[in-house]
């Protein structure tokens, strides 16, 4: 298939997954605010950190508040990682490849895009936010389910899976990195219930709470949550499961040697980690998540260099940690100069 088509399928899946993830984050954080004790101050800043866009947010708004953060993450078209921007880019990438996917998928992405435009005002107030965001998540899952049940398992499908699971792995590490920063330190006994609420919100951000409770039949704890979201291979949003899917997808594509090496390095880093030590040593988990983020960036760069561009791999370097350097990766997608290069 044409490199341009493969690239568009890859980015379509990344942007659709990103839109769903942003909707989940805002929903869970809104619900968490309702459960906080009075002595704990609500903080919407971690959502901006998770998306790696604090610098852009502060330049535009200067002060963090619930309304500003929600507007920035959901409705701001100048924010490349906002919900509306992600849906717009997912739609545009699918528009150019709609002849190789079921027609219903194109109809569904149009439907969700129009709904987001028409009802975005409801999401900016707490009253209509939950219903709006649940509808977004539901529509995204419908598209994924439709493609999974009605699309041929060819190269286009594999590039789509690569994009989806790389974006999913990226979000899992981001949530663990930012949300665990103030959760792994010693907490006064009278605030232990609040700590568990936060760890529950980490799980719920990834729709992992019920599956976690099935496996870990005890109170929610930081060490168990970190282990579950990194190493539980049977849970499809864990980092381990995402890596396995990346390996399976790349194995079905030609010229996979370079991307597979990058994924193998990521897998090795995950398997070497001492989860208990990471969870109990202050700052260690953050540094480890930085390493995982760089390895994920290396996987992305290897895929781009192998299948989407004519540039040599030396030109593709590992991306610095997004929370400290740039807004949500990757930048707005536009087809590269290799529009006629073939992926196979």
Q: Major sheet, described briefly? A: none
Strand percentage: under 5%
Number of strands: 0
How many structural units, i.e. domains? 2
Distance between the termini: 7 Å
Low-confidence stretches: 312-332, 334-344
Can you offer a commentary on this structure?
- It is a single chain.
- The chain has 344 residues and is mainly α.
- The chain has 2 domains: 1-151, no CATH class; 152-322, no CATH class.
- 67% of the residues lie in helices and 0% in strands.
- The chain contains 15 helices and no strands.
- The chain has helices at residues 3-35, 45-50, 54-61, 66-74, 83-95, 103-123, 126-150, 155-179, 192-205, 209-215, 222-231, 239-251, 257-272, 275-280, 284-308.
- α1 packs antiparallel against α7 (126-150) and α5 (83-95) packs antiparallel against α6 (103-123).
- The radius of gyration is 20 Å and the shape is globular.
Summarize the entry for a quick read.
67% of the residues lie in helices and 0% in strands.
Give the key terms:
single chain, 344 residues, mainly alpha, 2 domains, 15 helices, disordered C terminus
Protein topology:
Elements: H1 3-35, H2 45-50, H3 54-61, H4 66-74, H5 83-95, H6 103-123, H7 126-150, H8 155-179, H9 192-205, H10 209-215, H11 222-231, H12 239-251, H13 257-272, H14 275-280, H15 284-308
């Amino acid at each position: 298939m044409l490199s341009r088509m493969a690239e568009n399928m890859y980015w379509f899946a990344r942007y659709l997954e990103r839109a769903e993830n942003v909707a989940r984050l805002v929903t869970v954080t809104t619900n968490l605010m309702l459960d906080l004790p009075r002595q704990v101050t609500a903080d919407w800043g971690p959502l901006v950190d998770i998306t790696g866009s604090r610098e852009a947010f502060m330049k535009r708004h200067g002060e963090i508040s619930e309304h500003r953060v929600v507007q920035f993450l959901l409705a701001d078209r100048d924010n490349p990682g906002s919900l509306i921007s992600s849906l717009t880019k997912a739609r545009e990438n699918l528009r150019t490849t709609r002849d190789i996917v079921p027609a219903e998928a194109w109809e569904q992405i149009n439907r969700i895009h129009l709904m987001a435009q028409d009802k975005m005002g409801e999401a900016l107030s707490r009253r209509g936010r939950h219903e709006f965001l649940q509808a977004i998540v539901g529509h995204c899952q419908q598209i994924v389910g439709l493609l999974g049940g009605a699309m041929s398992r060819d190269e286009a499908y594999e590039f789509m899976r690569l994009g989806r699971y790389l974006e999913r792995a990226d979000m899992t590490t981001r949530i663990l990195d930012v949300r665990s920063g103030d959760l792994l330190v010693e907490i006064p006994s009278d605030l232990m219930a609040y700590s568990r609420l936060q760890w529950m919100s980490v799980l719920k951000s990834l729709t992992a709470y019920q599956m976690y409770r099935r496996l870990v039949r005890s109170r929610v704890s930081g060490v168990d949550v970190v282990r579950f979201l990194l190493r539980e291979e049977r849970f499809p949003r864990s980092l381990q499961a995402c890596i396995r899917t990346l390996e399976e997808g790349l194995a079905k594509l030609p010229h996979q040697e370079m991307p597979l090496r990058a994924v193998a390095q990521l897998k090795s880093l995950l398997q070497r980690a001492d989860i208990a030590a990471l969870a109990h040593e202050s700052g260690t988990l953050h540094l480890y998540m930085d390493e995982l983020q760089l390895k994920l960036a290396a996987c992305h760069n290897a895929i781009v260099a192998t299948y989407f561009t004519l540039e040599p791999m030396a030109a593709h370097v590992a991306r610095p940690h997004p929370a400290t350097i740039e807004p949500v990766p990757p930048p707005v997608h536009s087809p590269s100069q290799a529009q006629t290069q073939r992926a196979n």
